[in-house]
């Protein structure tokens, strides 16, 4: 069962994501400058929205294990494709644990936490705080990227380690135990965006790149020059 309220919230996050990525892609191709605290926290706020909503939805829906496995397999496949594509085109900023990688693991871990609703909030808070501490440290290996420990000189286009973001996911799950959607019928374009958020995530950058190419005239050429 789908809940329009959840789709609406996710649709708002989709719009914010698209707005940010238009600016980010323009920045990446050297067309504009992005600086300041806003452009640091804005994408993390958007990612946090998606993560909180995903945890909340898992708590509300409580999917069967068979359905959950199918979802995780789809996410894992997409995560592998993202890693492969970024390795081919931007090897210096390859995505090794982006938000889709995060959702792959968080969905599995969240399924386990469905059986322990009383510890979702304290565990979520603890994981979030631990992540804030770990993210300030640097290590000599990249083997711990998934948990939130980054190596020196680490650079990537997208990074959402389990800590602190699993904390946001679990806090979302906790709220799902007490704040239930009512299934109110809504007919808004944002709901359609929310229902198709993963598809939009997949196709957004090619569309944005084409849009920027129309405006600036050399974006696609820059991409082709990367491989030279």
Automatic annotation (TrEMBL):
Superkingdom to which the source organism belongs: Archaea
Protein keywords: Membrane, Transmembrane, Transmembrane helix
Domain (Heparan-alpha-glucosaminide N-acetyltransferase catalytic): residue spans on this chain: 2-206
Transmembrane spans: 12-29, 41-60, 72-90, 96-114, 121-139, 159-179, 200-224
Any matching Pfam family: HGSNAT_cat
Name under which the protein is recorded: DUF1624 domain-containing protein
Annotated organism of origin: Archaeoglobus fulgidus
């Amino acid at each position: 069962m789908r809940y329009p309220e959840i789709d609406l919230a996710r649709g708002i996050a989709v719009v914010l994501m698209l707005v940010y990525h238009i600016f980010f892609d323009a920045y990446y191709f050297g067309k504009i400058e992005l600086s300041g605290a806003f452009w640091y926290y804005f994408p993390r706020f958007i990612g946090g929205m998606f993560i909180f909503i995903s945890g909340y939805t898992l708590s509300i829906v409580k999917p069967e294990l068979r359905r959950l496995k199918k979802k995780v397999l789809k996410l894992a496949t997409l995560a592998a494709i993202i890693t492969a594509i970024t390795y081919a085109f931007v090897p210096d900023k390859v995505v090794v644990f982006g938000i889709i990688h995060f959702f792959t693991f968080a969905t599995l871990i969240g399924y386990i936490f469905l059986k322990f609703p009383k510890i979702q909030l304290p565990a979520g808070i603890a994981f979030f705080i631990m992540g804030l501490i770990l993210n300030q440290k640097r290590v000599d290996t990249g083997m711990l990227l998934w948990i939130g420990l980054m190596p020196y000189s680490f650079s990537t286009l997208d990074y959402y380690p389990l800590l602190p973001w699993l904390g946001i996911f679990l806090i979302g799950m906790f709220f799902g135990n007490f704040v239930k959607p009512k299934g109110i019928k809504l007919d808004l374009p944002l709901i359609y965006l929310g229902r198709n958020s993963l598809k939009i995530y997949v196709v957004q950058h090619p569309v944005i790149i084409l849009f920027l190419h129309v405006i600036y005239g050399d974006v696609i050429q820059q991409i082709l020059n990367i491989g030279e």
